[in-house]
Amino acid sequence: MAIDIGLLLGKKNPPLIGLDISTSGVKLVELSEVGKHEYRLERFASEPLPRGAVVDGNIENIEQVSDAVRRVWKKSGTRAKHVSLGMPPASVITKKIVLPGGMTEDQLEVQVESEASQYIPFALDEVSLDFDVIGPAQNAPDDIDVLIAATRKEKVEDRVAVAEGAGIKPLVMDIESFAARAALDRIIAQQPNGGQGQIMALFQIGAQMTHVSMLQDGQTLYEREQPFGGNQLTQDIVRSYGMAYEEAETKKKAGELPEGYERELLDPFLENAALEVTRAIQFFFTSTPYTRIDHLFLAGGCAVIPGLVEMVAERTKISASVVSPFKGMQLASGVREKQLRAEAPAYLVACGLAMRRFD
């Protein structure tokens, strides 16, 4: 029998930080467990990235991203050296397959590899392949449902290089949309009846992309990405006021823009965002058997733009709220609550990655 040294020393879950690398910046979250499924937010921090360092989820400049990770690590004050990283959904191929039950781990691995080669458009030696047994297959109790996830090795290696360049060690690699769902499942569980049977829409509005997920009882019913994000508003500010991009981004966040900004730039952007959400919902209805959504969650850096959630609720006629992934968590003494309230929706993925410590 193998003895887990960590358990012996009382270190069941060594500190693991969630690190979300997106187009606009790097976000870090560290959680600790204070009871069964009860968490405390120990620290959170973010650091912007130079434009072009990460494009469409691809790391274009490892050094710049590594520097930002080193800065965010230092800024947060964490001592944890192990990290959980996310892969953008667009760079991961996932497929649910059915296999006979009762196989050993080794037999499963062989079977998964031979199945995977049918679905993956690259040579198997170019990909990192992982699988997860979900449980018994629905219509055949002797079979099992297995989720395969595959991504090109170079994409994984880039993220590993970023972490190692910053002096930290990657232990877990998750898919960003799975991490977001894990964090959201915690919030849904706090709803009346734990949100059972309800269809929830999650819109993560980032800098360049909006990731749309429709969820019910812990299952993803539908997912898509739309090219829309907060960068459009920043670009409008750059054009209208002749500012540099970085200055426009800072003043947008601080709300320090010339008079007329709201009427001329912000309101049209909000209208556009609400239109994107409405369009995505129509796509969902026309391409699936579903005809209703019970609640709509907004997340991502754009979710906190004043007036957005109200505009979306009004246009879609669906109850909507901005998601705070830390709702119901204890907060460590060093956590600045005011800053947390303003920024929490942008930390959904980082929070889900940090929760991997307790799996």
Q: What labels would you give this structure?
A:
Dna Ligase, domain 1; globular; single chain; 11 helices; Nucleotidyltransferase, domain 5
Uncertain stretches of 5 or more adjacent residues: 1-10
Give the strand content: 25-35%
Shape: globular
Assign the CATH architecture of the domain at 192-324: 2-Layer Sandwich
C-alpha Rg (nearest Å):
21 Å
CATH superfamily of the domain at 192-324: ATPase, nucleotide binding domain
For the record, give the distance between the C-alpha atoms at the N and C termini, rounded to a whole number: 22 Å
CATH class designation of the domain at 192-324: Alpha Beta
Order of helices and strands: HEEEEEHEEHEEHEHEEEHHHEHEEHH
| Class per helix and strand makeup | alpha/beta
Number of H- or I-type helical stretches: 11
The largest beta-sheet arranges its strands as 10-6-1-2-3-16
| Residues in helices, as a percent range | 25-40%
InterPro entries: ATPase_NBD (IPR043129), FtsA/MreB (IPR050696), PilM (IPR005883), SHS2_FtsA (IPR003494)
Protein name: Pilus assembly protein PilM
Domain SHS2: 16-184
Organism: Noviherbaspirillum autotrophicum
